[in-house]
Specification:
Strand content of chain C: 25-35%
Largest interface: A-D, 50 and 56 residues
Shape of chain C: globular
Helix content of chain A: 10-25%
Largest sheet of chain A: 10 strands, mixed
Number of strands of chain A: 13
Strand content of chain A: 25-35%
Radius of gyration of chain C: 18 Å
Distance between the termini of chain C: 35 Å
Distance between the termini of chain A: 20 Å
Oligomer: heterotetramer
Radius of gyration of chain A: 17 Å
Chain lengths: 226, 226, 252, 252
Amino acid sequence: MATQEKTRLTRDLMAARIAAEFQDGWIVNLGVGMPTLCSDFLPADRFIVLHSENGLIGYGRNATVEEATPYVVNAGTFPVLLQPFASIVHHADAFAVIRSGRLDVGVLGAYEVGANGDLANWKTSREKKGGGIGGAMDIAACAQRIYVLMEHTTRDGKPRLLERCNLPITAAGVVKLVMTDLGLFEPNGEGFTARELAPGFTLEEVQALTGAPLRPAPDMREVQIR
Amino acid sequence: MATQEKTRLTRDLMAARIAAEFQDGWIVNLGVGMPTLCSDFLPADRFIVLHSENGLIGYGRNATVEEATPYVVNAGTFPVLLQPFASIVHHADAFAVIRSGRLDVGVLGAYEVGANGDLANWKTSREKKGGGIGGAMDIAACAQRIYVLMEHTTRDGKPRLLERCNLPITAAGVVKLVMTDLGLFEPNGEGFTARELAPGFTLEEVQALTGAPLRPAPDMREVQIR
Amino acid sequence: MPPPNKTYPDFASAVADIPDGATIMIGGFGAGTPHNLIKALYEQGAKDLTLILNAAGTGRDPGPGPAHVTPSTLIEARRVRKAIMAFTASTHPSRTTPVEELQEAGEMEAELVPQGTLAERIRAGGAGIPAFYTPTAVGTELAEGKEHRVFNGRTYLLYEALTADYAFVRAWHADEFGNLVFRRAERNFNPLMAMAARCTIVETEEILPIGALDPDHIHTPGIYVSRIVQIPPDGIFHITRGPAGGAAQQGR
Amino acid sequence: MPPPNKTYPDFASAVADIPDGATIMIGGFGAGTPHNLIKALYEQGAKDLTLILNAAGTGRDPGPGPAHVTPSTLIEARRVRKAIMAFTASTHPSRTTPVEELQEAGEMEAELVPQGTLAERIRAGGAGIPAFYTPTAVGTELAEGKEHRVFNGRTYLLYEALTADYAFVRAWHADEFGNLVFRRAERNFNPLMAMAARCTIVETEEILPIGALDPDHIHTPGIYVSRIVQIPPDGIFHITRGPAGGAAQQGR
């Protein structure tokens, strides 16, 4: 394994891996950006309801150019397909689903995740007045659990998994699982538990790119989709 | 006029007379009981939207036995007909219409009306624990104006138009017009202004059946539908 | 994978697990009442219940035969600990209801709530809103002891949300996933209660295959529904006012 | 008497009376945006506006030609005094928006509200609820200065309702009375805003005669609608993401 080529995970692989965590019967919200890729990788042997902030309850994979209509789009406004069991509600009722705790998981992008489960994904500096919250703050505060899907480091190589978030948080202590291009991690209070690592990477190599102590899970392994 | 026979108004006449007050474009809620009779007497030259607590927006006259369906009923659960422009909403949205002040008038039955416009129509004694509020308290608190449709006196001849209500009130100072079987009256703070009287009745005769001072309107006349 | 089929074979099995002490919302406002589920609950025997509903029915005039069980029947049988309603008394001042009598006798609790506030509290329960302010009932006996607060110069009362363990809902059509369509005035409280309960049980005139309903026409998304029973030919489809004002049961 | 016909001949006449200083809600979430009304407002000239909407658009990348005016175009033209939105910054951290720049420069006010709270504040405005509590944003920078309150052991924030002078709404079908039907994801904020504004102006693909819509399928009752304009063949029907992520205007 030490001689294996190091391969950061592709966005599709990251989406597919986190989608494999969805359990049968779950109601799932996929955040704008990378998380919406998950809709193409739902586990075939489980019944999953994809929910979108704009009121789609039961959408499916991304539409091809031929299939796309301007009427059926996900929260990122990309065209998707409806499932046969789909229904539509207005924006307040879409957030009624969220606030009442009915989302089994929200999969969100992030700028930073803290070892205490804090999520920061709405503002890129403390000084800026503005921000892009969208539905993330509602989802983060109210879903049964939050999974994060993000690059392990910033564009200039700085870690995004930190002991504590530097940026203003979206919600406190809500992240249960973080999927990055270097593996699958669980916040554990003091740092992160590495459950899976990208092919060819050692724990030490990933630790060097992580801003909090990494601990290997007892059964830590290479990333596997199922 | 003094020799004319005294005629208390029929329920239909009372309903028709108060319905003649509805202005073009008004949204109107008709309370359970006598007020629902108004739907059979809407002014033909005005556009009126009848709203019901159960979510019918735009119903019309009472259905005949042949026309009745169990699906289309008014707040009193009597079968009515839908207008061609009708729409249906759920109970919370039906009360959104009410609470947001969009009812131009609510026509309600009452046990008592005070000279200060107070309405009492949900409880028949101060001592009783229970009551029948239904939608009346929301309508009374939020409609632009309240018209009351009731018998002028109780079954044992006691007045229902009073200086102040004896019974617990439904809302304070909301009644603008009271239609009884003896005429049409406006609460004026100290008593009631008689706008119209039932055929053959004098102001003195009606005053004797009224629990607050009656003042004749400058143009007081016999009840006329239009 | 396709969705689970939530169809139950009969009303008895759909209400079988309701325990003593459960809180149950019951839809309907004249039209749209889940008569068959109410009857099945009566036969099932659960007691010490809390009911949330518009009105309980008169109880004294249960209509034609044993088929017509109303919430008042449950109340008369002393199986309801508390009721939250917009009518605890009859609209006819000369009649008394079982709720009034048991409440006066201290044998049950009844909370009287204006109907719009009741609907909004149920809506809030389903929407994850714990409490809200409303102008209704300010200045009345019901406002005593309630928190008053002024917004933009007007006084409002604070009310908390309502949720339930179960909701009994009556729909016109359902698909096997539990997507619901209501017909006309049968909608009323039903979609709100479906959202506010942990387990929503539906009786419907017809269960359709998945895909038969237009997603834009669905009033209650299937995610809110746990169990569906199709009303059998000998079930209760409607109870309407008879010619003399009494109840008349109607078949399909 | 039949209902009034609320049809207006064109977008210019439908927005002609909007005064300086008006508060305007604008529907849409990608899909369901009233592009033609936004463009007509831009051409009409009203300024000192308050806008309530999900996001303003990037402004810098207005898509193909002058047809594609976004709320950001109004903002860049310094005609917006205040915006209440769920996105005041771009989701791409590398880009800045006109709102951000004007806000930093003190030239306009921007209130950032979580999207679910924004939707609920608009819903409350239309429902006559002056204020409500929500769990969203507790523990964040947005909660600073807000009233915190505990219900059943959980902490919530108080938010007040939003209403507006005008709402711009995009519907699939309308009838002449203003009953509206939305298609799929175009519904989003539109029916909520229609209820929360004193004057709701609708652009629609097709105006149908009264009676053409099933009352059970209507998403917005006509009582909430004041003006309706049918999008002409040369109007903007949809603006969708092009192959490269940019905007592409689509005809019918």
